[in-house]
Write a structure and sequence with these properties.
This protein is α+β, with helices and mostly antiparallel strands. Helix content is 45%, strand content 12%. α20 runs antiparallel to α21.
């Protein structure tokens, strides 16, 4: 393992001077001096003093003062304070410069947009000039964005450095522990706590202007079109959040949110989920029971809710031809308790919708049906507030264009809503002013990215940039991840009968333990590192491995690191300072290089690879599996049908060969015997290959191993062998016919 001091020196940005970083070596030297001196200290247990007695002395009989050693604890504290002040000053200076650069780019874009609008009917030369201006402005925006990402990496590596040095100090000076104090202090400083989302908002506006985005026409007849809708959820590391935002806003605008301080790229979102004492809804959603529902009340923005969305999500199995649906209606906060207590004035609201809002009769009927069903399910299933999720949501979408919609949830936490009196339904979420115990809240360590695609017609394939983002190594797909399910499993461990597979992931183990959910986790010294059930088979689906075999630094399954793409050795550099490419290599990889790197070994792991090693190699790079193949029941039957088809072909060839051997005459039958004997091993090969393919694919289906489940080599090799035998037999038959005709005196 590389020591942090060496890692810090190797990962310094070439744009920043070395003195801008924390002086890790100096702080470590102070700690070593303090450890070596073993200074005599005043007895901290004495609680009485005498005004006439002399002060404590050391072994030489001198009074204990700071002069006994050139290094004291105060030196360490003062050095820490100076380093923190230096980092805060440098960070604010860089942010100020970045904002000035953004001002210049904005003025440049506004200038040529105004000019282009005024001269829209000018010559072709003017149009070409505008294209060059667009490219120039885009390069300027890219430069600002990459500078911001480098600054964030600067903050992260220094923040980690302080964690490391404070941990080392407390370990060597247990009498003067100070880590928690300084960690809390750092979180109050601008270089750590500062929210610079305005940079993201302004960059989004610049890229949107460069793309010339326009709101799509609202589709009021969506039911008449056929679309393939898919939703995929990913975990994103905190240090990659800004990179992911940058990768998305180059193609989609940020949905801006109004706040008290101006426009922001994110909005606080609260959702209170309902369930009963048996957690019926939790287990239904976890088991993916057809018709399983999730019932929640959601509101947006800080403070007390005003407008509340009553939502119901219903699960449907896609292989049945049905799609899962989300339905909702809005109520005022004062009306929520009426909905929960079955006192909501449906008839009055129905008349109001028809008279004031101009809703059609069908729309009103659908609304009434939904409201009555949701009110009824609360009473029948005795639902009460159970879990609340809270996060900052950043949304990316072109208005009224549902082709690609992306949301990124950060600062995600789950709060238990059990354990307080609802006052007969008068209260439906706990008082936010009251402090929470550790076992009432769990903070999720990753951001959650959700990609929604609506493909059809001309957009039958997802955009290339979406594929590149999925293969970037920054996204870790977690199949069917649910905030509600995770919160219930972590905060209500004594009530759940089963837990989701991702709880065994090594990266979220500490957060579950801090919230008191340790009973759903295996012990640290467990033989397999995973709990009983699904993870005994699906352990490879955990993005960061299990507690026994953690892979906390692993890249995504479909990604290769920039060094692998460029052929650069990832071993520590010999120099003290990293080059620009080594420091921020992943920003310099082109989309084409990234795509090629992901396709380079996609066909190598096939079922025939072990049998025909000369046809393919194996990818020895251990990468975290993140993609999960969705298993439908018909896949098992399709595997059996394929097995029977191959077996039928083998039996047919064997029957032909046996018939030739049985009916061929003894005289002049060498060719027939040779042909039959050549077909016999081929027919055996068909049968063995059918059996091997069936077992290999069954294992793929059972374990949901990501990647290709077809074999592109086996059929090619068997088919080529059969064609060769048929061709040789054809040639030999032609020779026999020619020989026979020659004997009869004819020319062929």
């Amino acid at each position: 393992m590389v020591k942090f001091g060496l890692r810090l020196s190797q990962n310094r940005a070439p744009e920043y001077p070395p003195e801008a970083y924390m002086d890790y070596d100096k702080l470590k030297e102070i700690i070593h001096e303090l450890k070596k001196k073993k200074l005599a200290r005043v007895d901290s247990t004495t609680r009485e003093v005498s005004l006439t007695a002399p002060p404590p002395t050391n072994a030489a009989g001198r009074q204990l003062t700071a002069d006994d050693s050139p290094v004291t604890e105060e030196d360490f504290y003062s050095t820490i304070d100076k380093e923190l002040a230096k980092l805060e000053s440098f960070t604010l200076q860089q942010v100020t410069e970045l904002r000035k650069q953004i001002d210049n780019v904005e003025n440049e874009v506004k200038g040529w947009v105004t000019t282009s609008t005024a001269t829209a009917a000018t010559s072709t030369a003017g149009h070409k000039m505008n294209e060059s201006q667009i490219e120039s402005s885009r390069e300027s925006a890219d430069t600002v964005a990459k500078s911001f990402l480098i600054l964030e990496k600067y903050v992260n590596i220094n923040f980690m450095g302080f964690h490391k040095i404070l941990k080392k100090h407390d370990k060597n000076s247990p009498q003067h522990q100070c880590k928690q104090f300084y960690i809390n202090r750092m979180h109050q400083q601008a270089w750590v706590r500062g929210d610079y989302s305005d940079v993201v908002v302004r960059l989004s506006n610049i890229y949107s202007a460069l793309r010339d985005d326009h709101a799509a026409e609202e589709n009021k007849d969506g039911g008449q079109q056929s679309f393939l809708r898919s939703t995929t959820k990913y975990w994103v590391r905190t240090e990659d959040v800004s990179k992911v935002k940058y990768a998305i806003l180059k193609h989609l605008p940020v949905f801006l949110q109004k706040t008290s301080t101006g426009e922001s790229d994110s909005q606080l979102t609260n959702s209170v989920y309902f369930d009963n004492d048996q957690l019926e809804l939790y287990h239904g959603r976890l088991d993916k029971t057809p018709g399983a529902i999730a019932y929640r009340l959601r509101w947006y923005g800080a403070g007390n809710p005003k407008l509340v969305f009553c939502e119901r999500k219903t699960h449907r199995d896609t292989w049945t031809g049905e799609a899962s649906v989300k339905e909702r209606f809005t109520v005022d906060e004062s009306e929520v308790k009426q909905v929960l207590n079955d006192k909501y004035p449906i008839d009055e609201k129905r008349k109001e919708m028809q008279s004031k809002k101009g809703a059609t009769a069908d729309e009103v009927d659908d609304w009434e049906t939904l409201v009555r069903e949701m009110i009824q399910v609360v009473q029948v299933k005795q639902l009460v507030p159970t879990m609340r999720t809270q996060y900052m949501r950043t949304a990316f979408q072109i208005p009224f264009d549902a082709t690609v919609r992306i949301s990124l949830d950060t600062n995600l936490c789950m709060i238990s809503e059990r354990g307080y009196d609802t006052l007969g339904g008068a209260k439906w979420f706990r008082d936010p002013e009251k402090p929470l115990a550790d076992n009432e809240i769990t903070r999720f360590p990753h951001a959650v990215l959700e990609v929604k695609l609506e493909l059809g017609g001309a957009n039958a394939e997802p955009p290339q940039w979406v594929t590149d983002l999925q293969n970037s190594g920054m996204l870790y797909e977690v199949h069917k991840f649910s905030k509600f399910i995770h919160g219930c499993a972590a905060l209500l461990p004594e009530y759940v009968r089963s837990v989701p597979y991702w709880v065994d992931d090594a990266s979220i183990r500490d957060s579950i333990l801090r919230s008191g959910g340790g009973r759903i986790l295996v012990k640290q010294d467990h033989d397999t590192g995973v709990g009983p059930g699904a993870n005994e088979v699906y352990d490879h689906l955990l993005p960061f491995g299990n507690v026994k075999e953690p892979r906390l630094d692993a890249k995504g399954r479909t990604a290769n690191t920039a060094s692998l793409v460029k052929g650069v050795d990832e071993s520590p550099a010999k120099g003290a300072v990293a080059t620009a490419e080594q420091y921020y290599a992943d920003a310099d990889v082109t989309e084409e290089e990234m795509l090629n790197s992901t396709l380079r070994g996609c066909c190598e792991d096939t079922c025939a690879g072990w049998m025909f090693p000369f046809c393919s190699g194996y990818n020895d790079d251990i990468l975290t599996p993140t993609s999960v193949q969705k298993i439908e029941p018909k896949i098992f039957f399709a595997n059996e049908r394929t097995f029977l088809h191959w077996l039928h072909s083998g039996v047919t060839l064997y029957t032909i060969a046996a018939g030739i051997l049985a009916f061929a005459s003894d005289a002049n039958s060498m060719t027939a015997h040779w042909y039959a004997m050549a077909l016999l091993p081929i027919s055996l090969g068909f049968c063995l290959y059918a059996l091997h393919l069936f077992l290999w694919r069954s294992e793929k289906i059972k374990t949901r191993i990501p990647g290709r489940w077809d074999d592109s080599r086996g059929p090619l090799i068997l088919g080529t062998t059969l064609c060769c035998v048929l061709f040789i037999n054809f040639v030999m038959k032609c020779k026999e016919i020619r020989k026979y005709n020659n004997l009869l005196g004819y020319e062929l």
